[in-house]
Amino acid sequence: MGKYLSIIRWPNLLMVPLTMYLMRYCIVQPMLDYQFSIQLGSQLRLQLSDGYFFVLVMINVLLGAAGYVINDYYDRRIDTLNHPESVIVGKSIPQRHAIIYHWALNAAAIVLAAIFAWHLKLFSIVLVYMMFAGIFWLYSTTYKRQLLVGNLVVAIVTATIPLQVGLFEYLTLTREYGYEMLLNSLSFMPIMYWMVGFAFFAFITNLIREIVKDMEDLEGDASCGCNTLPMAFGMRVSKIVVVALIALTIAALLAVYDFYLHESLTFIYICVFLIVPLVLAIVLTLTAQDVKHYHRISTLLKVVMLLGVLYSVVVRQIIRFVV
Question: What domain count does the chain have?
Answer without folding.
Answer: 1
